[in-house]
Amino acid sequence: MQKEVLLFLTDHWADWEVCHATVGIGFSKDYDLKTIALDKSPKVSIGGLRTEIDYALNDYQSFDNLAMIILAGGFSWGENRFDEIANFIKKARAGNTPIAAICGATLFLAKQGFLNDVKHTGDTKEYFDEILADENTYTGQKHFTEAQVVNDGGFITANETAALEFAREIFLVLKTDVEEGINGWYEYHKKGMAQ
């Protein structure tokens, strides 16, 4: 039986930041990629993609078959607290479900205190400090790492330029292929055909 990977979408989600990850998961015979959002109304990406939603947040009750939650980046994370999404993430983490977040979604995790005790990254430390200056729930500044992607303590975090690195880390956690195959895929897409 396939395990589910949930792609969490908000309005104005960053489609390009998760495209490599979603395609790779979609090709895997072991996983079923599903979309989830606060409600079932379609979500429109920054690039104009209108995406249907498989699950409204409150309709997803059983985490037994859940392999990972991916939080697509986008503008909405900085504009909202999304406490109901934070509660959902807490339930998933209680069962050790890995959480992957890129760009603006890393700020959401930081605001909600998820990154206080794990190494993490985002869109530069200066940006994190500026946006989170008034957030007393974020105390993880010493764990911020300037990197494309960081995987620690069940959280994968990536900056906005790290779509490939983000996907590679997701694939390694999900074991969508052997490590050599995943790294080969990454090198091929990073360096390109014509060198």
Report Rg.
Answer: 16 Å
What percentage of the residues does DSSP assign to strands (E)? 15-25%
Number of domains as seen in the coordinates = 1
Query: What is the overall pLDDT average?
Result: 95
CATH class category: Alpha Beta
**Largest sheet strand order:** 5-2-1-6-7-9-8
How much helix is in the residues? 25-40%
| Content-based structural category | alpha/beta
Query: CATH superfamily name?
Result: Class I glutamine amidotransferase (GATase) domain
State the helix count. 7
Termini separation comes to: 41 Å
What features would you describe in this structure?
- The mean pLDDT is 95.
- A seven-stranded mixed sheet has the order 5-2-1-6-7-9-8, with helices on both faces.
- The protein has one domain (3-191): 3-Layer(aba) Sandwich (Rossmann fold).
- Strand 1, helix 1 (15-27) and strand 2 (31-37) form a beta-alpha-beta unit.
- 35% of the residues lie in helices and 19% in strands.
- With 195 residues, it is α/β, with parallel strands linked by helices.
- The protein is built from seven helices and nine strands, in the order βαβββββααβααββαα.
Summarize the structure.
With 195 residues, this protein is an alpha/beta fold.
Characteristics:
single chain, 195 residues, alpha/beta, Rossmann fold, 7-stranded mixed β-sheet, two-stranded antiparallel ribbon, 9 strands
Question: Layout of SSEs?
Answer:
Layout: E1 3-8, H1 15-27, E2 31-37, E3 43-44, E4 50-51, E5 55-56, E6 66-71, H2 76-79, H3 83-94, E7 99-102, H4 104-111, H5 125-131, E8 149-152, E9 155-158, H6 163-174, H7 179-191
Parallel strand pairs: 1-2, 1-6, 2-5, 6-7, 7-9
Antiparallel strand pairs: 3-4, 8-9
Helix pairs in contact: 1-6, 6-7
